[in-house]
Amino acid sequence: MSKIELKENLKKYSNLDECPIRNIISRFSGKWPVIILCILSENECTRFNQIQKAIPDISPKVLSDTLKNLETDGIIKRIVYGEVPPRVEYSLTKLGLSLMPYINNS
């Protein structure tokens, strides 16, 4: 491989917005996303309070923010039931389920 080819191959890692590795690390760099994915993979539909009880050292705000980020990324889905009081359940999407074999084997 020539120096020019090597330089071209390495260029994708210097672009902060398009680097494939940086994008993955930014989504899963904290300790909470992977733990939440494991909880949701073991329990098909899980309510917010159930997740919080399973992770007692996470604050409600951090849990809420992490769930929103995972939902925005299409990894989990949030289902709101029109009941009083409102019932909200979280579960993995197909994309989220496709990640689990890699997470479980690590």
UniProtKB/TrEMBL annotation:
Pfam families: HxlR
Domain (HTH hxlR-type): residue spans on this chain: 19-106
PROSITE patterns found in the cross-reference section: HTH_HXLR
Stored Gene3D superfamilies: Winged helix-like DNA-binding domain superfamily/Winged helix DNA-binding domain
Record key words, sorted: DNA-binding, Transcription, Transcription regulation
GO terms, molecular function: DNA binding
InterPro entries: HTH_HxlR, WH-like_DNA-bd_sf, WH_DNA-bd_sf
Superkingdom as given in the UniProt entry: Bacteria
PANTHER family: TRANSCRIPTIONAL REGULATOR, MARR FAMILY (PTHR33204), TRANSCRIPTIONAL REGULATORY PROTEIN (PTHR33204:SF39)
Protein name: Transcriptional regulator
Species per Swiss-Prot/TrEMBL record: Phocaeicola vulgatus
